[in-house]
Task: inverse folding
């Protein structure tokens, strides 16, 4: 029978090795005071693999097979999901009053495609909130012009997002009329109807190491509370890519801790951490 790793098994040198690995592969910076956080998450992976100690797990990740098969699962343990429908109402009020009318006029009403992307989408509440607003405002033919992509590092979270099934407590901020029209009761929860959920396409994506060109010519990008745990270099890289993936006059919505020097790099702050790409 496998023994349970003891707390003393995670030596300081191993703790630092795991921190450096995670930061190098994801941009996420684990502070030194997060020892117990790391211990508990590493322990879950070790138990899952049936290993004896942290050193054995470290050696496994050093192998080509272990790195390929296990790294993604380790990073999933580290990611802290935070999402809810229509989170931070002032930004969604701007979306309804300013952003969507402008994008509909410049893109949809001209028969041009509208590209939306949600970075760090977690369990899908953010992109589904956008889909609900667009579905409610567009005709059947106009909806065909909309492409909503949602990405996250965690395949576990993405699987839940694709399912589109939520508990009643998850829907506290959903307008009652949306709840009655676009959700159905199922298994003690609520499922988003397929006509809306099919507007969103989910993908696994690493913001630090993968190619962003697939997101070029985005008209609206959400990246809220996604880079707050990144190191300075990774944040700078992601912010650079966020600006460059936007079409001219496209919009970027950030979390309130993700401040960027917008006016000096072609992004005009419109209020409430909403930026618009303009000629520098």
Result:
């Amino acid at each position: 029978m496998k023994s349970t790793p003891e707390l003393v098994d995670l030596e300081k040198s191993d703790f630092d090795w795991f921190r450096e690995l995670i930061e190098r592969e994801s941009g996420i910076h684990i502070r030194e005071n997060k020892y117990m956080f790391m211990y508990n998450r590493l322990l879950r992976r070790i138990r899952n693999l049936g290993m004896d100690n942290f050193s054995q797990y470290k050696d496994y990740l050093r192998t080509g097979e272990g790195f390929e098969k296990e790294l993604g699962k380790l990073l999933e343990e580290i990611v802290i999901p935070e999402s809810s429908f229509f989170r931070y109402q002032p930004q969604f009020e701007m979306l309804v009053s300013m952003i969507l009318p402008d994008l509909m006029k410049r893109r949809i009403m001209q028969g041009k495609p509208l590209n939306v992307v949600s970075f760090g989408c977690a369990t899908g509440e953010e992109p589904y909130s956008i889909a609900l607003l667009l579905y409610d405002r567009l005709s059947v033919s106009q909806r065909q012009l909309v492409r909503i992509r949602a990405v996250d590092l965690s395949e576990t979270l993405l699987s839940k997002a694709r399912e589109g099934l939520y508990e009643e407590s998850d829907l506290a901020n959903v307008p009652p009329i949306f709840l009655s029209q676009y959700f159905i009761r199922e298994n003690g929860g609520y499922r988003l109807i397929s006509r809306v959920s099919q507007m969103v396409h989910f993908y696994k994506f690493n913001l630090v190491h993968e190619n962003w060109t697939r997101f070029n010519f985005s008209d609206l990008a959400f990246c809220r509370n996604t880079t707050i745990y990144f190191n300075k270099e990774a944040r700078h890289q992601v912010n650079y890519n966020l600006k460059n993936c936007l079409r001219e006059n496209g919009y970027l919505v950030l979390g309130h801790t993700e401040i960027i020097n917008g006016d000096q790099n072609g992004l005009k702050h419109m209020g409430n951490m909403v930026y618009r790409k303009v000629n520098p």
The chain has a mean pLDDT of 89. Residues 89-277 form a domain with the Rossmann fold fold (CATH 3.40.50.150). DSSP finds eleven helices and ten strands in the chain. The chain has two domains: 7-78, 89-277.
